[in-house]
Amino acid sequence: MSSLLISTAAMAFGVKVEKPVVVKGSSIGTYAKPGAPVDISYESEHVDTGDTSNINIILTSSTTTGTMKVKVKVDKDLHEISKVKKHLSYDLSESKKEYPLHLEVSADEEGLYYIRVLVSIKGQGMRAFAVPVYVGDAVLKTKKTAGSYSTIEKTDKGGTISVSAAQESITEE
Prior knowledge:
12 strands, Immunoglobulin-like, 5-stranded antiparallel sheet, 1 helix, mainly beta
């Protein structure tokens, strides 16, 4: 309870809270279109600009034979602190089901960035994933289409909402 009060007071006075929020996600148990039998689980630290975000990704496959090829692409405005091979290859086996990746990234500007992971298994298809990396506080700008932006804001209860500019068209009949 006291750590919650300290964290709330620190945010109210603009003090940086030392422990970053961890965003977690997983595709396990969710519907997916036909493709490679691969799932992803990830943990991504939501950090301030200039700070290092630790990203832990685990790829899981039910396939026990063949080779899983993985391509990793980081958004251009994300700086890679730890270098990860962009093209990875894993020999699939019955004894190993999880294939971990660890990245450390940072950004100079607030926003929502992505680490894209493309997985292919010969004869079984492909699967694409995007791991979100949140940098900065309260308001995040996300590019929707060329030239238009949506603002994502945090609500008082910690949820997020997307705020977009209204467009009005009046036609005379």
